[in-house]
Each structure stands twice: as structure tokens, then as C-alpha cells.
């Protein structure tokens, strides 16, 4: 017998971000987290690289270690407000170039990361590819994670379907050109999964972006 998960509310935070000003951006995040929780959200998702801004030339300098106090502050706020927080950051990679990452902070006080798998043209000069799918479970709802270019690749959506995701949650930086909007619609309508997926359910598609908001 299949158990229907409890309904959840996902907040997509659209916020101004100051160039490389991590402390200021963090305070903005904490305020938005509290507001989302007050409105009854179970999850609040921020755009790609929301903690630093999209600053590829500064990427190696801005890359954050896994135990940076910024993540501790986000986790503490997630715990106090009983909400899952997904924020964007450049993440230090001991084996090479940094990753474009999403840090996921849980109400338990723990946090983990999803590493962007598909890079836009030019990003690979500064960033490394991630190689693992990202998925979290919130009150029985399975959420597949994507960062920007990830969701323009049908294979990424296919993996989410194969893993029986209920929600496909993508955070991005900029508005999409027409050709990428077409791919976006393809991902949203994705029905076919690999043969091993069986009766994978159709995930709902949520897209949080940031555009023209830099300070």
C-alpha cells in the first residue's frame, strides 16, 4: 500500500545580493528564512550562488570550506524555525577547482551539499562538475535538486524521474533564453524514464531564479 506524503509548502526566495559580501548576504538570508517559516513554508530555496553573487573571477577566493560558520548560522536558523533551507554557494574542493553548490540545512541542525553537475559555457574554467544526484525527503515528499544548467539537460530530469522524485526543484541565476526555455518545458513535461525506473511518478517542477538584482 502506497502512503501519500503530507502536503508541504515550498518558498522560492528572490532577493538582492551584494557582490562578494557574504556576511551581508547571510543576514538577508536569515531574514528571508524567518519570513518563509512564519508564512508556513516547510522548505525555502534561494537562487544559485545566493550567498556570494555570481562572481566567477573571484570564485577561488570566495569558495567556502565545508565547516564555515556561514553554514552553521544557516543550520541554526533552520533548526529554530523548523524549516529546510537550500542556499547557493561556491564550495571548496580539496581535489581541484571549487564547486557551484547548494547547501541544504535541515531542522535537525545538520547540513549537506548538492554539487551542480552541468556547467554553462565558460564556467568550467573556474568550477568543477559535480557527479552525484541530489535528493532530499521532506515529510515524505521526495525532492530532486537542480542548479541552473542542470535542468536544461533532459538526462537530469530523467534521473529525477527514475528516482521517483515528487518534486524537481531548480534554482538559477538568470532568465532563460528561448532555446533553454524549450528545454525547461521538456524537463517539466518529462514522462519517460529509463527501463529500470518502473512506474516512476511525474515530479512537479519548481523554478527559482534571480535576475537583475545585483548590488
From TrEMBL:
Cited InterPro entries: Aliph_Amidase/BUP, C-N_Hydrolase, C-N_Hydrolase_sf
Q: What Pfam families does the record tag this protein with?
A: CN_hydrolase
Annotated keywords: Hydrolase
Q: Is Iron-sulfur included in the keywords of this UniProt record?
A: no
Q: Which GO terms describe its molecular function?
A: N-carbamoylputrescine amidase activity
Q: Which GO terms describe its biological process?
A: putrescine biosynthetic process from arginine
Q: Does the keyword Nucleotide-binding apply?
A: no
Highest rank taxon of the organism: Bacteria
SUPFAM superfamilies according to UniProt: Carbon-nitrogen hydrolase
Q: Which residues form the CN hydrolase domain?
A: 8-215
Could you tell me what this protein is called?
A: Carbon-nitrogen hydrolase family protein
